[in-house]
Amino acid sequence: MTSNIRIAPSILSADFAKLGEEVRAIDEAGCDWIHVDVMDGHFVPNITIGPGVVKDLRPHSEKPFDVHLMISPVDQYLEAFAEAGADYISFHPEAGPHPHRTVQSITALGKKAGLVLNPATPLDILDYLIDDLDLILVMSVNPGFGGQSFIDSQLRKIENIRQRIDQTGKDIRLEVDGGIDQTTAPKAIAAGADTLVAGTATFTGGPGQYAANISGLRGE
Ligand code: DX5
Ligand code: ZN
Q1: Residue from 57, 66, 67 nearest 25 by CA
Q2: Which of 174, 196, 205, 207 is deepest in the core (most CB within 10 A)?
Q3: Which protein residues have a CB closer than 5 Å to ligand 2 (ion)?
Q4: CA distance linking residue 141 with residue 151, whole number of Å
Q5: What pTM did the predictor assign?
């Protein structure tokens, strides 16, 4: 049942003074994807990293880089993140005037396109976009910071999106980001999520704990 679940540690909770080492450690600890939170201090009230850091991290793991862009405008940075080695590039529809064009641009760069829905963002944005997406990312906290509490109303949203994805018959991943721990992970999975971002829950306790933390999120 949980074998299809992907765990994507958010390096936002890693030690930024040794990011390469941290990426190698979560890779060896059995994560599936590497989740990279990019924040601009404008779209969200925090600043993190840019494409240069993604490029330098790239040699430290062969696992997919799941790049979550919390930046506005977004379109002019897509190419830089693609060239830096992103595999999935996700953006918020509020980050620009033409979300469909942004999806087209990501796909044209040969990358997987993800759309991110904030807690208050309604689902109708999916009506004419879902068929072109590779990933839908449900924010279960407001974007900007790690360590926040899971917002339960997002479980209904996950259930609804699961139905919509199944209706398409396409291979679209359903990812949840924010407040995922051993209590909320099973709820998100039960609602239909197949990919879990986990910052705090992965990195708590230091490198010696990463493997156990990741297994715990899988329910092992
Ligand atoms: C929040 C980020 C998340 C965050 C998750 O804006 O998108 O990826 O780092 O952190 P935790 O798992 O600690 O809630
Ligand atoms: Zn994220």
Answers
A1: 57
A2: 196
A3: 37, 68, 177
A4: 6
A5: 0.98
